[in-house]
């Protein structure tokens, strides 16, 4: 779905030039409603059926089907031993991030190829990614049905042994903390995902087409750092370091992004306030009051800090959560885990777009920082 991140706001303005950021937030949140509903249902389905092929294949249904991530996480836990869990989760999340990496690249290619032109009255920089993604989903479903094996599990007790051994209940407090941290991570990630195009248009006077292309480059570089970090975490001893330490490192790096966005007096640049244009300037009432964050500094925290923070957090929290649940089928609890992530993806666009429209990026940064630092203690 990262193929749509940078182009959704310009496309909405093309459809409705009078669209407000608050409505854009509703559009973004609506996608995650289906995911929030689907996550616990698909997770429960995979646990009770002890099969993963059909639950994973539901991913072809945009929205509800994206709840198949709960089944994917449960499958990774079921197919890995506790000793290999860190590596399995690192590589699975790394594979997921590889898809996130390819999305902005493809969107930039489509934007450069089509520009403002439309071909066959149907294909342009905004619609071509949707056709491409639909084809990719169809191919993926075929591959799942013909090549996916969900008959053997190394990380769970067999049904025969399960009838002989009574597994203890998992510790609910650590599990809740993992779910809460995942909620916070998704709040941060979706804030960046939903506002990157809007923010850079306002801050650096990029046109919509420039914002799509340049943010595609930025997202691609950040995702490349993310994938590389997952590989390092999965193949070296860094991933085996105390998980609390990794979580603190991740939270600190995430916080650096929002610290940089605060209106520090050392920032000398001013925003180009022009309420009379529709593209390529800062048109909001708060523009005269906020300084411009230096572009090199913004690129550094977005690409490097965020690129490293996300895998440090998701790997540590995902591994801990799976180990806390124990050697059992985890579909239901992984569904709960994914549900709260989806809930964050519903709330974040509504909150961030409304705040950005009214007050810019300052209060968003303050709120996110107030959520991060208490969790780091």
UniProtKB/TrEMBL annotation:
Pfam families associated with the record: MFS_1
SUPFAM superfamilies, per the entry: MFS general substrate transporter
Signal peptide from the UniProt entry: none
Recorded GO CC terms: lysosomal membrane
S-adenosyl-L-methionine found in the keyword field: no
Subcellular location, record wording: Membrane
Top-level taxon of the source organism: Eukaryota
TM region(s), chain numbering: 21-42, 54-76, 88-110, 130-148, 173-191, 211-233, 245-267, 299-324, 336-356
Membrane topology: Multi-pass membrane protein
PANTHER family tied to this protein: INNER MEMBRANE TRANSPORT PROTEIN YAJR (PTHR23510), MAJOR FACILITATOR SUPERFAMILY (MFS) PROFILE DOMAIN-CONTAINING PROTEIN (PTHR23510:SF12)
Descriptive protein name: Major facilitator superfamily (MFS) profile domain-containing protein
Organism for this UniProt entry: Caenorhabditis angaria
């Amino acid at each position: 779905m990262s193929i749509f991140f940078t182009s959704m706001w310009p496309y909405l303005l093309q459809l409705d030039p009078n669209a407000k950021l608050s409505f854009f937030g509703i559009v973004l949140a609506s996608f995650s409603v289906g995911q929030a509903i689907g996550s616990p249902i698909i997770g429960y389905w995979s646990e009770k059926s002890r099969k993963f092929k059909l639950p994973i294949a539901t991913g072809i249904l945009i929205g509800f089907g994206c709840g198949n991530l709960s089944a994917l996480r449960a499958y990774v836990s079921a197919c890995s031993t506790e000793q290999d869990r860190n590596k399995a989760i690192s590589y699975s999340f790394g594979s997921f991030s590889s898809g996130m990496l390819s999305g902005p690249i493809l969107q930039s290619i489509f934007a450069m190829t089509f520009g403002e032109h439309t071909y066959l009255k149907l294909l342009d920089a905004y619609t071509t990614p949707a056709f491409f993604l639909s084809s990719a989903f169809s191919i993926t479903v075929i591959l799942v049905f013909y090549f996916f094996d969900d008959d053997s599990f190394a990380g769970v007790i067999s049904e025969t042994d399960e009838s002989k051994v009574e597994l203890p209940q998992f510790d609910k407090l650590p599990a809740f903390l993992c779910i809460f941290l995942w909620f916070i991570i998704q709040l941060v990630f979706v804030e960046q995902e939903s506002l990157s195009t809007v923010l850079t248009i306002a801050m650096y006077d990029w046109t919509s087409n420039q914002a799509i292309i340049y943010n595609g480059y930025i997202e691609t570089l950040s995702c490349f750092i993310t994938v590389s970090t997952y590989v390092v975490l999965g193949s070296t001893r860094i991933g085996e370091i105390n998980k609390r330490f990794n979580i603190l490192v991740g939270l600190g790096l995430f916080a650096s992004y929002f610290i940089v966005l605060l209106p520090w007096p050392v920032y000398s640049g001013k925003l180009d306030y022009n309420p009379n244009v529709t593209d390529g300037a800062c048109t909001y009432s708060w523009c005269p009051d906020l300084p411009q964050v230096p572009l090199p500094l913004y690129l550094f925290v977005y690409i490097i800090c965020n690129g490293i923070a996300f895998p440090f957090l998701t790997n540590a929290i995902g591994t801990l959560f799976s180990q806390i649940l124990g050697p059992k089928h985890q579909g239901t609890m992984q569904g709960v885990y994914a549900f709260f992530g989806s809930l964050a993806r519903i709330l974040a666009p509504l909150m961030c777009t409304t705040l950005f429209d009214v007050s810019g990026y300052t209060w968003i940064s303050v709120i996110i920082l107030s959520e991060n630092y208490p969790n780091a203690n």
